[in-house]
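Bench log. Compound arrived from synthesis this morning; before running ITC I wanted a structural hypothesis for how calcium ion sits in the protein. Inputs:
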Amino acid sequence: MDVGDERVIALVDMDCFYVQVEQRINPELRNKPCVVAQYKTWKGGGIIAVSYEARGHGVSRNMWADDARRLCPDLQVARVREAHGKADLTPYREASVEVIEVMSRFAVVERASIDEAYMDLTGSVQDRLKHMSVQDITPQQLKGTYAQGFPQTSDPSESAAVDKEERRLRGLQQWLEHLSSGGQSSRAELCLTVGALIVEEMRAAVEEHTGFRCSAGISHNKVLAKLACGLNKPNRQTVLPLGSVPELFSTLPIRKIRNLGGKLGTSVTETLGVENIGDLTQFSKVQLEQHFGEKTGPWLYDLCRGIEFEPVKPRQLPKSIGCSKNFPGKTCLATQQQVQHWLHQLALELQERLNKDRDMNGRVAKQLTVGIQQAGDRSFSRCCALVRYDAVKMTSDSLAIIKSLNTAGSHQEAW
Ligand code: DCP
Ligand code: CA
Ligand code: CA
């Protein structure tokens, strides 16, 4: 029977990714409080990425650059370039391809976003274990690794006193001793640790070849790997064994779990009247099925115990190519001409990126989807066939499939 510890899964996520891309382009920005902001028109632009130095000053994403400068007077602000009147993310997409390329030398990867990827290391770990054992693993090979739940201290006053690196090392040593003592689940735990060795090497290779640093989580499934990755950022990796899940989950809000950050998570919290993911263990599988259906119920039943089976799908390329632009407040589009103009700008970017994708990746897109978010949270999307990579044609097709949204008559100027 599957007990949920058969695989070794890692999630690697770049640290303050857009900031690192800008710092590589302009070395003067390195090792400084720095943000990436887009558009300048309003309050110095909106911040979309923040260096860890700047986070230390209380700067965060979604702040205005002008407000952030008040918190941190020597803040460096890099700007997203613009093309077709909108943000141009090309440099970040290209940097992402470089990173994924290095990672894929080590394992089969699933690109999960512009700056993160999952990998299934189960096979690589088995191979390594043919030639090594617990005794061969040293703390020096795991110099950026945390073992979640370690050190296990009975004396809380002791843990507060030591600095973070010292505590990490103590925890790691205790973890390695725990491994060699050969408990019941030690085979699975050994596999995670060998996974961590591979990820240390992979992260070093990524830094060597791209200059970018990242963090990683190593566990038995995607949910735990993703969670673990965020526990000790930046430039560190975290092993999360199943044995450390109950304590971690006992104080972890449900929305922090992958796929539970949105409506489903809110519904779980409200329906069951619980806060933390660990609280779900008090419900039977039947109860969870009654509330959330025969798919989601059993998924939650396993998940709150740290068990999940979603496979890593081999895929290095994004599934779709899309671009969008927001028109907040007064900038809201109000005439047919404006709607057409901006659809055309988006189509121009799309045309460029589709052509590049066809040349580089030898594939052709077949479907065009148009999505619109209107004031008052109403959202709408429709699709049609994508027959030619032609901005004019894509613009007119887009207009045709969203026509029904226009409450003004088609002969009128207004939209
Ligand atoms: N991004 C964005 N708008 C958002 C979220 C992210 O433009 N609302 C971009 C900028 C980020 C990149 O995507 O640099 C990756 O997003 P992450 O959420 O992984 O955040 P960072 O990599 O910036 O920081 P961290 O070190 O916390 O992962
Ligand atoms: Ca990131
Ligand atoms: Ca990310």
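What the model suggests: The domain at 17-85 is CATH 3.40.1170.60 (MutS, DNA mismatch repair protein, domain I). The CA atoms of residues 285 and 410 lie 54 Å apart.
ITC booked for Thursday regardless.
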